[in-house]
Design a protein that fits this description.
By secondary structure, the chain is mainly β. Helix content is about 0%, strand content about 50%. Strands 2, 4, 5, 6, 9, 10 and 11 form a seven-stranded mixed sheet that branches. Strand 5 and strand 6 form a beta hairpin. The chain is globular and about 40 Å long. The protein starts with a strand and ends with a strand.
Length: about 130
Protein backbone atom coordinates (compact mmCIF):
# COMPACT_ATOMS: atom_id res chain seq x y z
CA UNK A 1 0.00 0.00 0.00
CA UNK A 2 0.89 3.65 -0.10
CA UNK A 3 1.09 5.85 2.99
CA UNK A 4 0.17 9.51 2.70
CA UNK A 5 1.07 12.34 5.04
CA UNK A 6 -0.22 15.90 4.69
CA UNK A 7 1.55 18.95 6.02
CA UNK A 8 1.47 22.72 5.69
CA UNK A 9 -1.80 23.53 7.37
CA UNK A 10 -2.17 26.36 9.82
CA UNK A 11 -3.88 29.61 10.67
CA UNK A 12 -4.08 32.34 8.06
CA UNK A 13 -6.08 35.53 7.57
CA UNK A 14 -8.67 35.83 4.84
CA UNK A 15 -6.99 36.72 1.57
CA UNK A 16 -3.81 34.95 2.52
CA UNK A 17 -2.16 31.86 1.13
CA UNK A 18 -1.08 28.43 2.27
CA UNK A 19 0.64 25.57 0.53
CA UNK A 20 -0.26 22.05 1.54
CA UNK A 21 1.92 19.12 0.67
CA UNK A 22 1.29 15.40 0.63
CA UNK A 23 4.23 13.05 0.87
CA UNK A 24 3.88 9.42 -0.12
CA UNK A 25 5.82 6.40 0.98
CA UNK A 26 5.61 2.70 0.27
CA UNK A 27 4.87 3.06 -3.43
CA UNK A 28 5.49 5.65 -6.10
CA UNK A 29 2.71 8.13 -6.80
CA UNK A 30 3.05 7.91 -10.56
CA UNK A 31 0.49 5.10 -10.74
CA UNK A 32 -2.16 6.98 -8.75
CA UNK A 33 -4.65 9.67 -9.46
CA UNK A 34 -4.29 12.08 -6.55
CA UNK A 35 -6.98 14.16 -4.95
CA UNK A 36 -7.51 16.72 -2.22
CA UNK A 37 -10.64 16.77 -0.10
CA UNK A 38 -11.71 18.78 2.91
CA UNK A 39 -14.08 18.24 5.76
CA UNK A 40 -15.60 20.28 8.56
CA UNK A 41 -17.33 18.86 11.65
CA UNK A 42 -20.83 17.67 10.91
CA UNK A 43 -20.39 17.81 7.14
CA UNK A 44 -19.51 15.24 4.52
CA UNK A 45 -16.08 15.17 2.99
CA UNK A 46 -15.94 17.67 0.13
CA UNK A 47 -14.00 17.41 -3.11
CA UNK A 48 -11.40 20.10 -3.73
CA UNK A 49 -9.20 19.02 -6.65
CA UNK A 50 -7.64 16.05 -8.38
CA UNK A 51 -4.75 15.50 -10.75
CA UNK A 52 -3.97 12.73 -13.20
CA UNK A 53 -1.10 10.29 -12.89
CA UNK A 54 1.20 12.24 -15.16
CA UNK A 55 0.01 15.61 -13.92
CA UNK A 56 -1.33 16.50 -17.33
CA UNK A 57 -4.96 16.89 -16.28
CA UNK A 58 -6.46 18.69 -13.30
CA UNK A 59 -9.98 19.23 -12.08
CA UNK A 60 -11.29 21.61 -9.44
CA UNK A 61 -14.40 22.17 -7.43
CA UNK A 62 -16.20 25.33 -8.50
CA UNK A 63 -15.69 26.78 -5.05
CA UNK A 64 -11.90 26.84 -5.45
CA UNK A 65 -11.39 27.44 -9.17
CA UNK A 66 -9.02 30.30 -9.81
CA UNK A 67 -7.76 30.25 -6.23
CA UNK A 68 -6.30 26.77 -5.67
CA UNK A 69 -3.77 24.89 -7.77
CA UNK A 70 -3.01 21.20 -7.51
CA UNK A 71 0.32 19.91 -8.75
CA UNK A 72 2.51 16.87 -8.40
CA UNK A 73 6.14 15.92 -8.55
CA UNK A 74 6.37 12.21 -9.13
CA UNK A 75 10.15 12.27 -8.82
CA UNK A 76 9.76 13.55 -5.25
CA UNK A 77 6.65 11.47 -4.62
CA UNK A 78 4.66 14.50 -3.55
CA UNK A 79 1.47 16.33 -4.44
CA UNK A 80 0.83 19.95 -3.55
CA UNK A 81 -2.19 22.16 -3.09
CA UNK A 82 -1.41 25.86 -3.42
CA UNK A 83 -4.23 27.85 -1.85
CA UNK A 84 -4.50 31.56 -2.57
CA UNK A 85 -7.11 34.18 -1.72
CA UNK A 86 -8.29 32.07 1.17
CA UNK A 87 -11.76 32.59 2.58
CA UNK A 88 -13.20 31.69 5.98
CA UNK A 89 -15.32 29.02 4.29
CA UNK A 90 -12.10 27.27 3.27
CA UNK A 91 -11.57 26.37 6.92
CA UNK A 92 -11.48 22.59 7.17
CA UNK A 93 -9.31 19.57 7.65
CA UNK A 94 -7.67 18.88 4.31
CA UNK A 95 -6.99 15.32 3.22
CA UNK A 96 -4.79 13.92 0.50
CA UNK A 97 -6.03 10.78 -1.26
CA UNK A 98 -4.70 8.28 -3.80
CA UNK A 99 -6.73 6.33 -6.35
CA UNK A 100 -5.07 3.25 -7.81
CA UNK A 101 -7.82 2.45 -10.30
CA UNK A 102 -8.98 4.14 -13.49
CA UNK A 103 -12.01 6.35 -12.91
CA UNK A 104 -13.71 9.12 -14.79
CA UNK A 105 -13.00 12.71 -13.88
CA UNK A 106 -16.42 12.95 -12.29
CA UNK A 107 -15.97 9.75 -10.29
CA UNK A 108 -12.71 11.10 -8.94
CA UNK A 109 -14.62 13.91 -7.25
CA UNK A 110 -16.11 11.33 -4.90
CA UNK A 111 -14.31 10.02 -1.80
CA UNK A 112 -15.35 6.44 -2.58
CA UNK A 113 -13.08 6.41 -5.65
CA UNK A 114 -9.96 6.66 -3.52
CA UNK A 115 -8.08 3.83 -1.87
CA UNK A 116 -5.68 5.59 0.47
CA UNK A 117 -5.96 8.66 2.67
CA UNK A 118 -3.68 10.78 4.74
CA UNK A 119 -4.35 11.81 8.31
CA UNK A 120 -5.42 15.33 7.40
CA UNK A 121 -4.05 18.77 8.16
CA UNK A 122 -6.04 21.62 9.67
CA UNK A 123 -6.50 24.85 7.73
CA UNK A 124 -8.11 27.74 9.56
CA UNK A 125 -8.90 31.00 7.81
CA UNK A 126 -9.80 33.89 10.06
CA UNK A 127 -11.86 36.93 9.13
Amino acid sequence: QVQLAESGGGLVQAGGSLRLSCAASGRTLSSYTMGWFRQVPGKEREFVAHISRSGGSTYYADSVKGRFTISRDNAKNTVTLQMNSLKPEDTAVYFCAADQRVHTMVMNTRPAAYDYWGQGTQVTVSS
